[in-house]
């Protein structure tokens, strides 16, 4: 289990696959990472809920725990401007719209 604090967009994984995976049964959302990271000054990641499909967040990791460790104190204020920049970058790069927010969650894989 890993705890994350990210700034990004929570997208519907099926819609993401429909838009970019086409009919390729071997397509993986990780194929989008080179596009997303090509022209952005921070590393963009995609974290998905492989167990229940509740989230697929595209964005920048602000803080993350190591396996099974707790999350250190994270100041989540002051990301309003960056959230606008990230949302615009994702829309421009892979044509996915959404409002970027700060997300805190545990990924169980």
Q: How many β-strand stretches?
A: 4
Mean pLDDT: 88
The total number of structural domains is: 1
Radius of gyration: 14 Å
Shape call: globular
Fraction in beta strands? 25-35%
Q: How far is it from the N-terminal to the C-terminal residue, by CA?
A: 6 Å
Treating each run of at least 4 consecutive H or I residues as one helix, how many helices? 3
Strand order across the biggest sheet? 2-3-1-4
User: What's the story with the biggest beta sheet?
Assistant: 4 strands, antiparallel
Spans of at least 5 consecutive residues with low confidence: none
**What is the N-to-C order of secondary-structure elements (H for helix, E for strand)?**
EHHEEHE
Derived structural class:
alpha+beta
Helix fraction by DSSP (H/I, runs of at least 4):
25-40%
Notes on the protein architecture:
The chain is an alpha+beta fold and 109 residues long. It has one domain (2-107). 27% of the residues lie in helices and 27% in strands. The protein is built from 3 helices and 4 strands; from the N terminus they run βααββαβ. The chain has helices at residues 13-20, 33-38, 80-94; strands at residues 2-10, 45-48, 56-64, 101-107. Strands 2-3-1-4 form a 4-stranded antiparallel beta sheet. Strand 2 and strand 3 form a beta hairpin. The model has no long low-confidence stretch (mean pLDDT 88).
Write the layout of secondary structure elements.
Blueprint: E1 2-10, H1 13-20, H2 33-38, E2 45-48, E3 56-64, H3 80-94, E4 101-107
Antiparallel strand pairs: 1-3, 1-4, 2-3
């Amino acid at each position: 289990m890993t705890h994350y604090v990210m700034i990004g967009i929570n997208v519907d994984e099926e819609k993401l696959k429909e838009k970019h995976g086409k009919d390729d049964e071997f397509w993986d959302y990780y194929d989008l990472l080179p596009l997303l990271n090509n022209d952005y000054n921070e590393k963009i990641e995609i974290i998905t809920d492989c167990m229940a499909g509740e989230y697929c967040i595209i964005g920048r990791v602000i803080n993350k725990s190591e396996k099974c460790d707790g999350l250190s104190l994270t100041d989540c204020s002051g990301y309003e401007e960056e959230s606008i920049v990230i949302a615009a970058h994702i829309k421009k790069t892979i044509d996915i719209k959404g409002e970027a927010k700060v997300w805190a969650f545990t990924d169980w894989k």
